Amino acid sequence: MRRSFVCGNWKMYKTPSEARVLARDIARGLRGDDGRVEVAVCPPFPAIAAVAESLRESPVAWGGQNCAPQLEGAYTGETSAAMLVDLGCTYAILGHSERRQFFAETDSTVHEKLEAVLGCGLTPILCVGETLEEREADRTSEVVGRQLRGALAGLPGPEIARSVIAYEPVWAIGTGRTATPDMAEAMHREIRELLATMIGEDGAEAVRILYGGSVKPGNAADLFSQPNIDGGLIGGASLTASDFLAIVRAGCSTE
Predict the structure, then answer these.
(1) How far apart are the first and last CA of the chain?
(2) What whole-number distance in Å separates Cα of residue 73 and Cα of residue 70?
(3) Is 63 helix (H, G, I), strand (E, B) or coil?
(4) Neighbours of 78 (CB within 10 A)
(5) What residue numbers bound the domain in which 126 lies?
(6) pLDDT per residue over 31-61, tens digit each?
(7) Residue 224 included in any domain
(8) Is 190 contained in some domain?
(9) Which residues neighbour 78 within 8 Å (Cβ) at sequence distance 6 or greater?
(10) Nearest CA to 158 among 122, 202, 197?
(11) What is the structure's pLDDT at 178?
(12) Exposed end of the chain (fewer CB within 10 Å): N or C?
């Protein structure tokens, strides 16, 4: 059975000192039964070391929001998978729509980053999702399928099976608009069916698929109760400890 997973994506918010406090508040706010849900946070790169200090003795994992495809070299401003590992990271978010939109990342770029992350033992959180224009043109399946196949092409089945997929419809990220539970479940089910064609049904059943896009304490339980939604990649609501912890508990209630 897949264990629920709630991961906070702090984006470009929180200085190292602010991040240290937020991470500490999240760790202190966890209750005993919250252990049924795996919890992680992905702070900005400069704050990872500070967050690690706050979380070291807690069950909360941490990760990076991006990763270079290269392991080292003259790539000014980049951060390698090996550097994330050395900082104690477990996860790396890859292919987020903001990276695709603002930094021109392609499916090919994301594929290269996946290889680097998997090669260093990190768990990738691969983001896929369509824009509002693509959804209204009835191209959601086409777009999400292309993103998945492009990112995962040629990877061994066991490596794909230990990856995490995050379905984040672009039109719902930071907009206050959220896919209904039925809409989200339909896409999650389709993603799992596509994965089954790539790595078999057993492998696809092992993959955790998260929903992201304006998840809040008020809608998390309904979303997480769907059979193919295994938790959430949380943006704005992860920047407040009380909201994030409420979402974690929504995951507990569906276990």
Answers:
(1) 10
(2) 7
(3) strand
(4) 15
(5) 5-234
(6) 887 789 999 999 999 999 999 999 999 999 9
(7) yes
(8) yes
(9) 68, 70
(10) 202
(11) 76
(12) N
Q: Residue 237 has what pLDDT?
A: 97
**Which residue among the candidates 38, 96, 105, 130 is catalytic per the annotation?**
96
CA dihedral 247, 201, 198, 8 (to 10 degrees): 10
In single-letter form, the type of residue at position 58 comes to: S
Q: How far is CA 104 from CA 100, 101, 110, 115, 170, in A?
A: 5, 6, 11, 19, 15
Q: Would residue 18 count as lying in a domain?
A: yes
Per the structure block, which two tokens stand in for 15?
């200085």
Q: Which two tokens stand for residue 53?
A: 């200090």
Q: At what angle do helices 48-55 and 16-29 cross, to 10 degrees?
A: 30
Buried b (16+ CB within 10 A) or exposed e, 160-192: bbebbbbbbbbbbbeeeebbebeebbbbbebbb
**CATH at 194:** 3.20.20.70
Is the confidence at residue 120, as pLDDT, over 80? yes
| Active-site option among 38, 134, 168, 185 | 168
- 168 tagged catalytic: yes
Domains held by the chain: number:
1
Closest CA to 92 of 69, 115, 61, 65: 65
Q: Is residue 241 part of a domain?
A: no
- Residue 127's nearest CA partner among 113, 135, 136 is 113
